[in-house]
Each structure stands twice: as C-alpha cells, then as structure tokens.
C-alpha cells in the first residue's frame, strides 16, 4: 500500500534533506496558513515576501504554493528571518518574525557543525551532529508559536499579478530577453548582461 506523504516529508523531499532551517520555513508556513485561514495557493491567491534565501524558503514554497515561477514569491535580500504572507481573497496580510532563541543552536551544535562542514569530524562527531539536528528540528516543529515568532497583522500593498511579456533578440549576444528588461545601447536593444551601465557614483 502506498501511503500519502506528510507535508513535512514533502518539504524534505523537495529540499533534499531535513535541517533546522527547513523546519523554520515549515513552521512559519503552518502559522501563516492557519492565521490567514488559507489553503495552499494553486495560483496567486497567496503572496509571500521572504527576506532571506536560506533553507526555509523551500518549505515556504512547498507548504504555501508561493513560488518564484508563479510570481507570488518575492525575495528581498535583507538577511532576516522575516516572512510576510498576504491573502488576496481575505485582503489580509501577516508579518512573521522568527525569534532569535528559536534560531540559535546550542554551543555543542555549533562546534559539531564546524567539524562536520570543515571536514574534520569523526564518525562519532557526525552521528552526534545528526542526533542534535534531529532534536533541534523536533523542537522547532513543536514549539509554541508565541515562543517561536512574533506575528503582526499589517497593511500590505499586493504586487501586480505576474504578466507574460513579449521577448526580443538582444542585438549583442543574440539571446531572447523579456521586453521590460531590455536596455538601449548605441541605438539598439540589448539585454542586461550586454548593457554597460553609466554611473557618476550616485
């Protein structure tokens, strides 16, 4: 008999492995869907704005259906464990900021991580690291949401829905590029890679 995979198992499959970062994104997504009373987004019913590009984002994609390809996942390179989710149908949005204590590993975990990723870990170190990772994941997944994060309902300007634009051939490299990304160079349309930006330092 083929058993349906759990949402967590689906997130792990998509990401490639389980880790505390993935658990953070999973927990954030669970909280957002519950508070917004939303199902996984089939199209652009939900919008997610993420402020990091860490493991957590893969869980956000799997759980909420907000993806880069659909245009309802917006990445802001701010290096923060902060996530904003907007429901178009409910006209509501939440900003979820993960608390520092929820992200901070214990000192043993930090030391083991350095050994494992630095290539100096023994088999025993690796086994201890895996056990510590598992404990951390379980702690995050079952943490009370008030301990895990700060949740705020906010005013949110929804982005335009994704559009399909015509493409044109770059006069320099010959590759096709979507119309809004074209630039003019010597009177011809070129892509961003072939365009030489002009700046005076401001």
UniProtKB/TrEMBL annotation:
Domain of life of the organism encoding this protein: Bacteria
Keywords from the UniProt entry: Metal-binding, Zinc, Zinc-finger
Zinc-finger keyword on record: yes
Gene3D superfamilies registered for this protein in UniProt: 3.30.1330.130
GO-annotated molecular function: zinc ion binding
Location of the Formylmethanofuran dehydrogenase subunit E domain: 14-150
Pfam families: FmdE (PF02663), zf-dskA_traR (PF01258)
PANTHER family, alphabetized: DEHYDROGENASE, DEHYDROGENASE-RELATED
Protein name as catalogued: Formylmethanofuran dehydrogenase, subunit E
Organism: Desulfotruncus arcticus DSM 17038
């Amino acid at each position: 008999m083929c058993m349906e995979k759990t949402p967590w198992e689906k997130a792990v499959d998509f990401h490639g492995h389980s880790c505390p970062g993935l658990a953070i994104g999973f927990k954030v997504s669970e909280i957002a869907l519950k508070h917004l009373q939303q199902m996984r987004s089939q199209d652009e019913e939900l919008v997610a704005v993420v402020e990091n590009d860490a493991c957590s984002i893969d869980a956000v994609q799997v759980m909420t259906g907000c993806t880069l390809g659909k245009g309802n996942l917006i990445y802001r390179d701010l290096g923060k464990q902060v996530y904003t989710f907007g429901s178009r149908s409910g006209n509501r949005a939440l900003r979820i900021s993960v608390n520092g204590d929820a992200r901070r590993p214990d000192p043993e975990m930090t030391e083991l991580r350095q050994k494992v990723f630095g290539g100096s870990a023994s088999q025993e170190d690796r086994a201890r690291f895996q056990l510590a990772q598992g404990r951390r994941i379980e702690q995050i997944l079952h943490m009370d949401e008030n301990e895990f994060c700060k949740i705020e309902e906010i005013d949110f300007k929804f982005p335009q829905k994704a559009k399909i634009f015509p493409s044109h051939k770059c006069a320099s490299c010959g590759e096709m590029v979507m119309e809004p990304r074209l630039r003019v160079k010597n009177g011809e349309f070129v892509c961003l890679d072939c365009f030489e930006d002009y700046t005076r330092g401001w």
